[in-house]
UniProtKB/TrEMBL annotation:
<dbReference type="Pfam" id="PF11104">
    <property type="entry name" value="PilM_2"/>
</dbReference>
<dbReference type="InterPro" id="IPR005883">
    <property type="entry name" value="PilM"/>
</dbReference>
<dbReference type="InterPro" id="IPR043129">
    <property type="entry name" value="ATPase_NBD"/>
</dbReference>
<dbReference type="InterPro" id="IPR050696">
    <property type="entry name" value="FtsA/MreB"/>
</dbReference>
<protein>
    <submittedName>
        <fullName>Pilus assembly protein PilM</fullName>
    </submittedName>
</protein>
Amino acid sequence: MSMIDAWFGRRPAALVGLDISDSSVKLVELAQGAGTVLRLEHFAREPLEIGWVADGQIEKFDEVVEAVRRVLTKSGTRCRRAALAMPSATVITQKVVLPAGLREDELELQVETEAAQILPFPLDEVSLDFCVLGPHPGLPGEVEVLIAASRKDRVQDRQGLLEAAGLRPVVVDVASHAARLALRRLVATWPETGREALLALVEIGAETTVLTVLRGEEVVYERAQAFGGALLSQQIAREAGWPLEEAERRKIARELPEALEAALVPPFVTELAQEIERALQFFFNSTPHLQVDRVLLSGGTAGLPGLDAAVRAATGFPAQVLDPFEGMTLGPGVREARLRREAPAYLTACGLAMRSFLA
C-alpha cells in the first residue's frame, strides 16, 4: 500500500471508514449520490472493553478483531476495502519549506533529510509520507511540504488487525486529519462562515477532550485535557448496576431511565461545559486571540441533552453539536432516529469514508 496515496487520500475506490478508539469501533460507508451529494449507506458502532485499546495501542488483538467483525456484521456492509486512522498522538507531523520544482526523487530525498532531523527514532523504523501543500506565501520559489511519520510497528498493528478481520486496508490516515476533512465538508455549506473565521472544534473522547482551533485549513491551536465521557458512563454504571459497556451504549443512544438521567446528566453537562470554557481560556491566554466565532462539539458525549446550550452559557460564544452526515441522503438500511442520536460520534469515521470521494 502506498503511504502517499493513503495518508493524503488520492481518491481510492469505495471503502469503509473504520475508527478504532480506546472505547469503541465505529464504521461508516458512503456512496456518491446525485451530483456532489454523498449518501450514507451503512454505519455502526461496537463498544470495546476497558484495556483492549489503551492510548491508541492495541493491547488485546484477538478481542478487537472480533469487535471489528461484529461491527461489520451489525452495519450490513459488504465492502471490504477499508480506511483506518492512526491516533494523532502516535503520528509526528511537521511542515517544512523546500525549493519548488524538484523532481519527485529529489523531493523524496529532501523529505528524508528533513525527517531525519525531526524524528526521535531512525528512519528505517518509521512509515513516512509527505504532501506538497503549495507555494509558500512569503517565500517565492519555495513550497510548503507536510511530513507525517509513525512507527512502523504501530501502523502494521492496525493493518494486521483489519486483515485478520477480513478487511483490506487501503488508506491510512491521521485521526485528526480525517475529522477535519469531515468538518471541512460541513463548513463549506455554512455561507455565513468565512475563511477567516476561528472555529473551536471540541472532540470529546472517553478519557480525553481535545480542543483544536482552526482558521480555514490552518490549525491555530491544539490542546488535550484529561476529561471525557467515560466519567459519566462510570457514574451511570455505578448508580444503575450495569456493566460499563451497557452504560456507555445507553448514554449515547439516550436510553437512560428518566430519573437516572435527571440526576446525573445535567451536573455532568455543566461540568463539561466548564471544562470547555477553561480550555478556551488557555487558548486566549497563550495567543493574541480573545474570541472564537463558533464552538463545534463532536464525540459520543456531545449528544447529551443541553450541552450546546450549556457551552453557549459558559463561553458566551455560539455552540453547536456536529452532525457529520448533515446534507447527505440516507440509504434504505439507515435508521434515521438512531443516526441523529449517535451522529456526533462518527466525525472521524465519516472523514475516513470520505477518502473515496474527496482529496
